Amino acid sequence: AGLTRQSAFGPVPSKSTGSALIAYRRPFQPQAGKQPVSLVIGGLGVNRGLTQDAIKSLPADVTLSFAAHTIGLQEWIDVARADGHEVLIEIPMESAGFDPSEPGADRALRITVPPAENGRRLDWMMSRAQGYAGLINFNGDVFLTRTDIAAAYMDRVSKTGLGFMTDGDFETPTLPSLAKSIFPIIEL
């Protein structure tokens, strides 16, 4: 309760009274003298068998990332969380090899789309389920490397109470400083 606002598509995360990142993250206790490592398995929800195998066979400490356009997304998230996994939603973003026929491309965040439309697309993707701790990019080497475009996206995400991470597949030299200027520092 209190972690959402109503959008045109249904409830979406909002930090008005709390943080979805804090509410839905997997508890973690750092061990003295050891560096933590995060392991995220992405692309889930697209192939039913592989998704079931990942949820059931991977340790609960592994974060699972689901494609935003996945059919039955809420059910997958419920099953993954019941198994102890932290969950992320993959947000499709424009890349150099952008394929408009790829599943989810019609909702992808694009540099040629006005910020308000990208915001609507993001709301649609976030409204598809509840119980996830954050967002992660799917592609996005064009979208996230344009500081002017990424700033509007990061500002919108900062109002959700969700975490955001990149998959590290490409260099985003200005994104870390942009994120620090927009997101509050949360001690996990």
Q: Could you please describe the fold and organization of this structure?
A:
The chain is an alpha/beta fold. It is built from 6 helices and 7 strands, in the order E-E-H-E-H-E-H-E-H-E-H-E-H. The strands form 2 sheets. Strands 3-4-5-6-7 form a 5-stranded parallel β-sheet. Strand 3 (40-44), helix 2 (48-57) and strand 4 (63-67) form a beta-alpha-beta unit. Helix 5 packs parallel to helix 6. The longest helix has 12 residues, at 115-126. The radius of gyration is 16 Å and the shape is globular. The protein starts with a strand and ends in a 6-residue tail after the last helix.
Lay out the secondary structure.
Layout: E1 4-7, E2 10-13, H1 20-24, E3 40-44, H2 48-57, E4 63-67, H3 73-82, E5 87-93, H4 115-126, E6 134-139, H5 147-158, E7 163-165, H6 175-182
Parallel strand pairs: 3-4, 4-5, 5-6, 6-7
Antiparallel strand pairs: 1-2
Helix pairs in contact: 5-6
Main β sheet profile: 5 strands, parallel
Query: So what's the oligomer here?
Result: single chain
Quantity of strands, as a count: 7
Through-space gap between termini: 21 Å
Poorly predicted residue ranges: none
**Protein structure class:** alpha/beta
Query: How much is the average pLDDT?
Result: 92
